């Protein structure tokens, strides 16, 4: 069943008014005026404290030297730094 060329030319023209009506209805539906509810925000009081610079005149100066709590003389085959010590002084360790 093949449609003739005259029928094919009439189909778009027949659908144009219907499409215009649908577009108009959808456009007007979006323009309806609804009453917007005005919601007033509740203002809650807050405590405000202004922070200023403290006037501290007390300054403590100490002289001394800093040493490690634990010092050990160790030798390794590979150069590097010890990053973690897994046992404390006097702690019992098992072989392996």
Describe this entry's structure for a reader.
The model has no long low-confidence stretch (mean pLDDT 78). The chain has 96 residues and is mainly α. The chain has a domain at 1-31. The relative contact order is 0.04. It has one helix and no strands. The protein has one helix spanning 5-29.
Strand and helix layout:
Blueprint: H1 5-29
Which descriptor suits the 3D outline?
A: elongated
Class inferred from helices and paired strands:
mainly alpha
Compressed to H and E, one letter per element, the order equals H
Mean of pLDDT: 78
End-to-end separation in angstroms reads 91 Å
Summary?
The chain has one helix and no strands. The chain has one helix at 5-29.
């Amino acid at each position: 069943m093949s449609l003739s060329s005259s029928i094919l030319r009439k189909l778009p023209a027949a659908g144009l008014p219907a499409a215009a009506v649908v577009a108009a209805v959808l456009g007007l539906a979006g323009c309806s005026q609804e009453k917007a509810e005005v919601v007033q925000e509740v203002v809650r009081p807050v405590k405000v404290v202004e922070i200023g610079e403290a006037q501290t005149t007390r300054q403590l100066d100490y002289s001394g030297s800093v040493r490690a709590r634990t010092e050990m003389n160790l030798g390794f085959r590979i150069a590097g730094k010890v990053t973690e010590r897994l046992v404390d002084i006097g702690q019992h360790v098992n072989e392996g």
